[in-house]
Design brief:
The protein is about 0% helix and about 50% strand. The chain has about 240 residues and is mainly β.
Length: about 240
Amino acid sequence: MFDLKSFKVLGRIPAAEDADAIVYDGASNRVFTLNGDAHSSTVIDPQAGSLITNIPLGGKPEYGASAGDGKVYANLTDISEVVEIDAKTATVVRRWSTAPCKQPVSMAIDTGHHRLFSGCRSGVMAVSDYQSGKVVATVPIGTGVDGAGFDAASGNAFASNADGTLTVIHQDAPDQYHVTESVQTPPGSRNMGLDPTNHRVFIVSAKFGAAPAGGRGRGPVQPGSFTLMVIERDPTTH
């Protein structure tokens, strides 16, 4: 925990093993880390800078999102479920399957229409109605997804994929979607951020060395090769 103005470290709060994402819920004024290997969420009081509890989730969480109403959602990638957490009581209150999506990883949220967007490693984005707790639509995306975003002004959802694509998906209606574009990005650019004030998507990329012989995955990152790709979309066009 650090001060945003001075960047001075104010304290350290322990999280469980493999903390992979962090979500702030304004309604409860609590911070939630999503811990993959521990199959849990660590709940933190940011005012006191202290640990409240660890919530068992029953699966391996990846990314999550706050609905702003005291509910926090997370993808459980190993069992292909979305889990709903009551932020105030720090308990799991509901869960549902993301089928036919498998391995949901990235997550974005549309609070206006109560929709969650789960980017899945099986090559689809699953759209859930988080009021009814069910998947209402799926859309094809690139492979190796690891980032997602939703821009309410344009009605566009985004999935950043390791195969060197950014899938742009338009919301025709809360339960209807279509792919409008597949933007070419550098291979391995699977993490993204979205600024809703200027409708820009930021994607991090790097150049990789040769993959290890007989091994899996990419080779080492070449020194000084990190770049930031900025993609701007006009919110009035689809």
